[in-house]
Amino acid sequence: MATATMVLTRVKVQRRFGLALRVTVVIALLALAALPLLLGGDVWAQRISRAAIYAVIGLSINTLTGHAGQISLGHQAFVGIGAFAAAFMASRLGAPLGFGLAAAGVAGAFTAVVIGLVALRVTGLYLALVTLAFGLTAETTIFNWREFTGGGAGAFAPRPAVLASDHAFAPLCLGVLGLVLYLDWRIVSTKTGRALAAVRNDERIASTLGVNVTGYKLAAFSLSGLIAGLAGGLFAHWNQIVQAMDFEFQVALVWVLMTVVGGLRSRLGVILASAFFALLPLTLPNFLSSLPWQPPFLNEAVYHVLPPFIVVVMLLIVLRCFPGGFGQLLRPATAWLSGKRQS
Amino acid sequence: MGAFLALGLFQGAVYGLLAVGIVLVYKAKRVFNFAQGEFGGVAAFTAFAIVVGAGLPYWVGVVGGLAAAVAMGLIVERVIVRPLESSSRTIMLVALVGVALFTIAIIVLLGQPIPRVMPPLIAGGGVNILGAGILPQQLILMAVLAVLAAAMAWFFKTDMGLAVLASSQDTRAAQVVGISPVAVSRLVWGMAALLGGIAGLLYAPVGIFTPGFMTLTMLVPAFAAAVLGGMTSLPGAFIGGLAIGVVQNLGIYYLGQQLKVPGAAELGVFALLMLVLLIRPQGLLGKEA
User: pLDDT tens digit string along B92-102?
Assistant: First the structure.
């Protein structure tokens, strides 16, 4: 009897110790991630904002592709519409930043609903084609519409005085990222997530189970549009000027690939991959030009194709070797941190 | 007006040619082939390197370009498509997007992002059709499109084509009667790459071309053409291609020139695609393959 109690106590103590250890590790990792923000100066605050915005975009694509199994190849259009909406609110109407962000999200969601209503009724990946065509239209028509976007000159999106410095703006981006993460977690762990999983695996079976297939696909796409619009609003204020050329259609392709590399339905994987590809174009040229020996075929003209090239190579490796992306590689660590028993 | 119509028809021939390849892959594999344009890109750049770079005769360039395209098709089939056969169509589409971007990046790295001019098959001035100057190259393109669309439609009536369709409908049952899924897959991707290569070789001399020219400007109208035609119909791809070309140019004429809407060509394609999916999702000539 006494020994049994002692064993039980020891198990309990070990569990408590394990929990404490895991919490410490999580806090240490978060602190490590926050170091550049605290010590890196304005440059790093700006970079972290960019990484957070990319992570929001990645999670937006994850909502559509990871949860609903559909693809958007024109996501830059939703981000762009959000960005121009936020810029319009800030510079033309002088509205506070919160209203601008809200308008950005609503604009993104509204566009997604209109397109989804047409494209998602049809079985198959027609959404990919429609969004692709829409992305080109947005790039050439909507973003060049002078009254809304200021034409080729771009639209200004000044920050309010409180958020003027990059150090003040970064926490806002991280806060939005946290909000989107919470949303994603709530989707997965409720009825919606299970319905979406059914739709993703087999639309016909899902509809026999009474799941409104088109409705759930549309809901996922409009949420994806909302999050993308929100990311666009943040981008507008991050850059403080929005131009049509920021939203070329190759950008959307890279975002889709980046999300798959991170691992569909893996929040941590998507965030890490997004942050990586957000910072790559900023750091790679400097890194390459500081090398003592330059490969002969590299020069300024080809620097901008290198990040897409790297994402594609990573995608092909990921699809062949570990289809779950970064998320799959990190699974042992995340499983331990969330306290699951190894089986 | 008449000039825009004629320009649209001949521009549409290129879309039709790409759409034929897209339809072929979709019929056989139920996959949207995003890499279709870059088969043409590879063919055009290889032919350019042979004809202009090395100064060899034109037919060597044509053969070399087509060989490069087919080789790329077979490599894509072996390295990307076949290993991913069992994964979802979503992942397959993402992988093919990856292939297209990879090819463009390789071309940029090897050849630099500069515009090039490829000599046409037949030199000489344009023919006047409805007030538009149409190059001999474009006339050849239209003729080749008609021949190839007819040939592909005929192909699906032959034993080999029926084998491809059978394998598409039920791979296992087709295997039981002796149709190898691997052989079908190789055949389909090889043929699609050949079609894409022909499209690239014929279109590159029409204007100047840059890395990614087939994917960035041609692929979206080509997909719209395939959807308009019904995604599984080869005559549909032909008609769809010409129709998209005409709609694009009418868009430029009415919206762009008269109402000064920027990007009228892209807007026309998008509007048509939305209309087709709204009114007739199965396309003009579409039926289950």
Answer: 999 999 999 99
Task: Tell me how far the alpha carbon of residue B17 is from its chain's centroid.
Answer: 5
Q: Are B203 and B214 in contact (CB under 8 A)?
A: yes
Shortest CA gap B90–chain A (Å): 7
Q: What's at A227, amino acid-wise?
A: I
What pLDDT, on the 0 to 100 scale, is given for residue A343? 47
What tens digit of pLDDT does each residue of B190-239 get?
A: 999 999 999 999 999 888 888 888 888 899 999 999 999 988 888 899 99
User: H-helix or E-strand containing A153?
Assistant: none
Say how far apart CA A21 and CA B41 lie, in whole Å.
55
- CA–CA separation, B202 vs B138, rounded Å? 8
Contact residues, chain A, for B269 at CB < 8 Å: 133, 136-137
Q: Which residue's entry shows tokens 């403080």?
A: A240
Phi, psi of A156 (to 5 degrees): -90, 145
Q: Which residue has the tokens 């250890």?
A: A21
Q: What is the pLDDT of residue A298?
A: 65
**Mean pLDDT, residues A222-234:** 96
Q: What region, left, alpha or beta, does residue A41 occupy, with left being phi > 0 and alpha being psi -120 to 50 degrees?
A: left
Q: Which residues of B touch A115 (CB under 8 A)?
A: 274
- Please name the residue ranges forming H helices in A240-337: 249-262, 267-289, 300-303, 306-321, 325-337
What one-character-per-residue DSSP string does A171-200 give? HHHHHHHHHHHHHHHHHHTSHHHHHHHHHH
- Please give the structure tokens belonging to residue B34: 């995003």
Over residues A110-148, the pLDDT tens digits come to: 999 999 999 988 878 899 999 999 998 888 888 888 777
C-alpha–C-alpha distance, residues B205 and A281, integer Å = 34
Question: Looking at this protein, which amino acid is placed at residue B250?
Answer: L
Q: Buried b vs exposed e over A284-323: b needs ≥16 C-beta within 10 Å?
A: ebeeeeeeeeeeeeeeeebeebbbbbbbbebbbebbeeee
Q: Which pair of structure tokens corresponds to residue A259?
A: 């999300």
A257 in helix, strand or coil? helix
Write down the domain spans for chain B.
2-116+131-279
Which of B27, B38, B213, B273 is the best substitution to test chain A (most A C-beta atoms within 10 A)? Answer: B273
Is the distance from CB of A284 to CB of A303 less than 8 angstroms? yes
d(CA A214, CA A219): 8
Contacts of B224 in chain A (CB under 8 A): 129, 133
- H-run or E-run covering A340: none
**Whether B266 contacts chain A with CB within 8 A:** yes
Tokens at A79, concatenated = 């981000």
Task: Please answer whether residues A54 and A207 qualify as being in contact, where contact means their C-beta atoms are separated by less than 8 angstroms.
Answer: no
Q: Which residues, 6+ apart, have CB-to-CB distance to A198 below 8 Å?
A: A205, A206, A209, A211
| CA A180 – CA A191 distance, rounded (Å) | 18
**If you average pLDDT over every residue of chain A, what do you get?**
87
Q: How many CB pairs under 8 A join A and B?
A: 135
Domain ranges in chain A? 41-249
Q: Which of B141, B177, B147, B150 is nearest to B162 (CA)?
A: B177
Q: What is the DSSP string of B130-147?
A: TTEEE-HHHHHHHHHHHH
